[in-house]
Specification:
mainly beta, 3-stranded antiparallel β-sheet, two-stranded antiparallel ribbon, 5 strands, globular, DUF6487 domain-containing protein, DUF6487
Length: 71
Protein backbone atom coordinates (compact mmCIF):
# COMPACT_ATOMS: atom_id res chain seq x y z
CA UNK A 1 0.00 0.00 0.00
CA UNK A 2 1.26 3.48 -0.83
CA UNK A 3 1.27 6.10 1.94
CA UNK A 4 -1.43 8.72 1.28
CA UNK A 5 0.89 11.42 2.67
CA UNK A 6 4.30 10.78 1.07
CA UNK A 7 3.51 7.97 -1.42
CA UNK A 8 6.27 5.70 -0.03
CA UNK A 9 5.47 2.01 0.35
CA UNK A 10 3.88 1.18 3.71
CA UNK A 11 4.63 -1.88 5.85
CA UNK A 12 1.72 -4.26 6.52
CA UNK A 13 1.19 -5.30 10.13
CA UNK A 14 -1.40 -5.07 12.89
CA UNK A 15 -2.52 -2.84 15.73
CA UNK A 16 -2.93 -5.08 18.79
CA UNK A 17 -4.36 -4.69 22.26
CA UNK A 18 -5.70 -6.74 25.16
CA UNK A 19 -8.88 -4.63 24.97
CA UNK A 20 -11.25 -3.23 22.37
CA UNK A 21 -9.69 -0.62 20.07
CA UNK A 22 -11.74 2.47 19.30
CA UNK A 23 -11.40 6.09 18.24
CA UNK A 24 -12.81 8.88 20.41
CA UNK A 25 -12.95 12.64 19.96
CA UNK A 26 -11.60 13.14 23.48
CA UNK A 27 -8.92 11.53 25.66
CA UNK A 28 -10.15 9.69 28.72
CA UNK A 29 -8.37 9.43 32.06
CA UNK A 30 -9.34 5.77 32.38
CA UNK A 31 -10.03 3.21 29.70
CA UNK A 32 -13.67 2.35 29.16
CA UNK A 33 -15.73 0.77 26.41
CA UNK A 34 -16.56 2.98 23.44
CA UNK A 35 -19.60 5.22 23.79
CA UNK A 36 -21.20 5.12 20.35
CA UNK A 37 -23.84 7.67 21.43
CA UNK A 38 -21.03 10.21 22.04
CA UNK A 39 -19.38 9.58 18.69
CA UNK A 40 -16.83 6.86 19.54
CA UNK A 41 -16.00 4.59 16.59
CA UNK A 42 -15.04 0.92 16.99
CA UNK A 43 -11.88 -0.09 15.15
CA UNK A 44 -11.55 -3.66 16.46
CA UNK A 45 -13.94 -5.31 18.94
CA UNK A 46 -12.76 -7.23 22.01
CA UNK A 47 -12.00 -10.91 21.48
CA UNK A 48 -11.01 -13.70 23.86
CA UNK A 49 -7.66 -14.04 22.07
CA UNK A 50 -6.98 -10.30 22.30
CA UNK A 51 -7.82 -7.66 19.77
CA UNK A 52 -6.04 -6.99 16.52
CA UNK A 53 -6.67 -5.13 13.30
CA UNK A 54 -4.65 -5.13 10.09
CA UNK A 55 -2.87 -1.81 9.61
CA UNK A 56 -0.17 -0.20 7.47
CA UNK A 57 2.79 1.74 8.87
CA UNK A 58 4.72 4.51 7.12
CA UNK A 59 8.04 4.83 8.92
CA UNK A 60 8.85 7.94 6.88
CA UNK A 61 5.74 9.90 7.97
CA UNK A 62 5.26 8.07 11.26
CA UNK A 63 1.61 7.43 10.33
CA UNK A 64 -0.60 4.35 10.58
CA UNK A 65 -3.50 3.67 8.20
CA UNK A 66 -6.25 1.36 9.46
CA UNK A 67 -9.72 0.44 8.21
CA UNK A 68 -12.65 0.81 10.61
CA UNK A 69 -14.48 -2.24 11.96
CA UNK A 70 -17.51 -3.26 9.95
CA UNK A 71 -19.73 -5.42 12.06
Amino acid sequence: MKCPYCENEMEKGAIQSAREIFWSNYKRRLFFKPNIDKGDVSIAPFGLNGTGKEAYLCKNCKKVVIDLYEG
